[in-house]
């Protein structure tokens, strides 16, 4: 990783981790003065990192955070500013980083928050410190949702005796895991919690002043884990899950979401994504069923059912979903109506509704085509003409302070063209609004020429159109304008692939028209100095490093490429540091017709693993097919996709890494050993 990349990574680790907001909420509209005191936060991030943090809020819109534990052992302090809205939602901005969005519980004791930076997200849940607490406050049955950065999730029932001991029983887990065992715990006077599963781990967290809600952070060897628990109660029903909730969610496929969910109190509701690490803001309906003890099931239309629990006061809800080898945990906090009324009675307040004087207009409403009215508040009147498929793979790169180049992948065959939208700052920054700046036809690239501000981020999105019909939006592309002119832009689509124990192949694409050559740089083990490995001509877009000995298991190699001309060289591409290949792959027959694969993870920088399969044994002539991906630090997956009982299948696996920002760069390890097995 180059110095710029290192600085960016540390900034993310440093600032993203220490966040969270506390608020002491009164019956009147919330304000910054209601956010005052100390909170303990647990955080988890989609790049295999988590932390436990102490936050101190001054009640005036400022504060500081101190990292107590972090999975990368990076501990420090940071300052932040925050702003509380009247409906309990708030924004928080750490010094030098992006703004996060969250919500506080009506009593001000529980806080949630989520940050997005390109395709990176971080979830934060915090509980306010109190006094006079002890083990006797933490007693009874609790439902726990738990997820770690190894790609595992679990739902548990724990039973605590109020004297520092108890038991746990797994209710759901990936691949059917349902472990059980004993627990010891200790609650300090301020509510902080030490929680131990003997022989397994010790975690630290905090419980709410009433003892009904708790969090735990587990700092493992190369991973982190967070758990959120809510006490079971009695006499609950659908009526106790009622109103607007802001949910923050994160899954083991590296996705994060902030969502508005409206529950009608009768077992039905609607949801609307407010932010998503992959840019797609979906909406839809769901059904739910609350049991007497507060546990509930929730089923979004067209998807699988999740299980969770709602607190006895109806203000906090947790939920977990399992889908084959991925899980997703969600934490929801109920909004208050103070200072943000629903004037037209359609279930959406002034801040949510694009027209709060008309109850037929609200987010998620049925759109009437071609009437000139935006019923569903997506910013456009839908047309009766079916729109084309949304573009994908949008990348933005600043050539100079006067030109930004865009490229994307066309997914349609019959569109009339594309509409390009732009705004300042990050994609999720609400300070600036999107505006359409151009349309293009017959091409999948655009040069935005303007007097841009120097060294400022600009965000872009693109959609296809046909007649009056529009597709959905592409991903959001972000770039930073240059401070000098004349040099080319950085190459794109850099891919590095281990092809043998001493060879790495690099490929890239040109993005500028004024390139006279390319420079390829390398360094060892992500440390030491960069050295110029080779110089290639303006029409050569590949290079084979034949002196990368030990690249499979002993020596790490990092690369970047620059485009050059007589004015100088471009900024470097993102750095790609090669992962080591997995080894020791085994396959066994599992339950319910599954094949279980296990392997040894030899890398500490992979973003995940790609699993390939073909029919027949390892030497068969059938074609390999990628069947799934596994997350960071995973060492097992199950395969059930279209398996035919008794048929022989072969498997191989490779690790991959990917840059966090656009334009992406990729690195692929060499293949693991191949295994074959007959499907059960």
Write the layout of secondary structure elements.
Elements: H1 3-17, E1 36-45, E2 49-58, E3 62-70, E4 77-84, E5 89-94, E6 100-104, E7 110-117, E8 120-128, E9 139-148, E10 153-161, E11 165-173, E12 180-187, E13 192-197, E14 201-207, E15 213-219, E16 224-231, E17 242-251, E18 256-264, E19 268-276, E20 283-290, E21 295-300, E22 306-310, E23 316-323, E24 326-334, E25 392-400, E26 403-409, E27 417-424, E28 435-440, E29 445-449, E30 457-466, E31 469-470, E32 477-480, E33 492-500, E34 503-509, E35 517-524, E36 531-536, E37 542-545, E38 557-565, E39 568-569, E40 576-577, E41 583-589, E42 595-600, E43 608-615, E44 625-630, E45 636-639, E46 648-658, E47 666-668, E48 675-678
Give a quick account of the main beta sheet: strands, pairing sense, barrel closure.
Answer: 8 strands, antiparallel, barrel
The residue-averaged pLDDT reads 83
Uncertain runs with pLDDT below 50, 5 residues or more?
1-28
Residue fraction in strands: over 45%
Gyration radius, rounded: 26 Å
Trace the largest sheet across and list its strands.
1-2-3-4-5-6-7-8
Structural class: mainly beta
**Number of distinct helices:** 1
Straight-line distance between termini? 45 Å
- Total beta strands: 48
Global geometry: globular
Percent helix, as a range, is: under 10%
Sum up the structure in keywords.
single chain, 680 residues, mainly beta, 8-stranded antiparallel β-barrel, 1 helix, 48 strands, disordered N terminus
